[in-house]
Structures are given as structure tokens and as C-alpha cells.
Design a protein that fits this description.
Elements (H helix, E strand, L loop, with lengths): L6 H18 L17 H25 L3 H28 L9 H12 L4 H28 L3 H22 L5
Length: 180
């Protein structure tokens, strides 16, 4: 008795498995959007990264209060924890370089936070938070990718290269937050 041909079934299973792997965790790619507004100097990096970190922490704290989905609340908690740690490392690097971090957010980050504050708690907030986290992480991924590749300062380049995968992961997580 001839054996059944298992190749079509194996090919289908392999394709399904690879498809699942591809969607499981694809890092957010850089958009290159900041190239038009950023110089290659470390001053712009410290200013933008510092402001983005302040925004991520404030927005994450807000998500824990105004969010309704468990995923949004949990993501907000993770943003606070991870970005506080990264902000501490950025502060140390800035101190070692004689750079000054911004005391508050840049105007674009302030506007995003104000929109989140204005959103009604619940579905309205969850949707707005998801959108803003995707946008802010696209910006951060682009900033850190650019610095990791082009910064004239080796320490800034190394810091950006080390933090970039975390920001890409955050961006991918934001894209998977539930849509209402």
C-alpha cells in the first residue's frame, strides 16, 4: 500500500507557522520622519529623547487612570516603568556629556498629552492612547535609529543602539492594543 503524500500538508503547516512568527513580533521600523527636523548633533537628540520620555511617562500614568481595557492599563504601566528607567540612563549620559535635558515636553509632545487629557475615560481614551502611542513610538524609533547609525558621539550612538529594540518592541505592542 503506497504511503500518503505528506508534502502538501507539511508545506501548509510550515507556511502557517512562519506567518504566525512574522506577525508575533515584528519590530516597528523607523520612518525617517525626523531627518527633516533633526541635525546630527547630540543636542537635538537629548532634547527630543528627553521630551519624548517625559511624554511617555505622563501618558502611561494617564492610561492607568483613564483607560478601561486591561491591555491599555497594563501597557501604560509598562511605559511608565520602562521609560523611567531609560530616562534615568539618558539623564546620566547627558550629565556625562555636559548636555541639558529639557525640563518639560516639546510643543508637539505637550499637544499629544493635552489631547489625551481631553479624551473621555473609556473607549474614547483607549483609542486616543493607542493612536498616540503608535505615533510617539514611530517618532522615537526614527530618532534612536538615526542616532544609532549617524551620531558623531560614540556614547550617544551606543545608547541609542541599546534602547532602540525596546522602543521598537513598544511600538509593536502599541499597534496590537485593541481597537474599539
Amino acid at each position: 500500500m503506497p504511503l500518503p503524500d505528506w508534502r502538501p500538508a507539511a508545506a501548509a503547516l510550515l507556511a502557517l507557522g512562519l506567518g504566525a512568527l512574522a506577525t508575533a513580533e515584528e519590530p516597528m521600523p523607523p520612518s525617517r520622519a525626523l531627518q527633516a527636523v533633526m541635525d546630527d548633533d547630540a543636542k537635538d537628540f537629548f532634547e527630543t529623547a528627553g521630551s519624548a520620555g517625559i511624554f511617555e511617562i505622563a501618558a502611561g500614568e494617564l492610561a492607568q487612570v483613564k483607560g478601561t481595557s486591561p491591555e491599555v492599563k497594563s501597557y501604560g504601566e509598562k511605559m511608565v516603568s520602562d521609560h523611567k528607567r531609560a530616562a534615568g540612563e539618558l539623564k546620566e549620559l547627558a550629565r556625562n556629556k555636559g548636555a541639558v535635558l529639557p525640563p518639560d515636553m516639546l510643543k508637539r509632545h505637550r499637544k499629544m498629552l493635552d489631547r489625551l487629557k481631553e479624551a473621555e475615560p473609556g473607549k474614547d481614551f483607549d483609542d486616543a492612547y493607542r493612536r498616540h502611542m503608535i505615533a510617539s513610538h514611530k517618532e522615537a524609533v526614527s530618532l534612536f535609529d538615526e542616532a544609532a547609525r549617524k551620531s558623531a558621539d560614540a556614547d550617544v550612538q551606543a545608547f541609542a543602539a541599546r534602547v532602540l529594540p525596546l522602543l521598537q518592541h513598544h511600538g509593536s505592542m502599541a499597534e496590537r492594543l485593541p481597537k474599539s
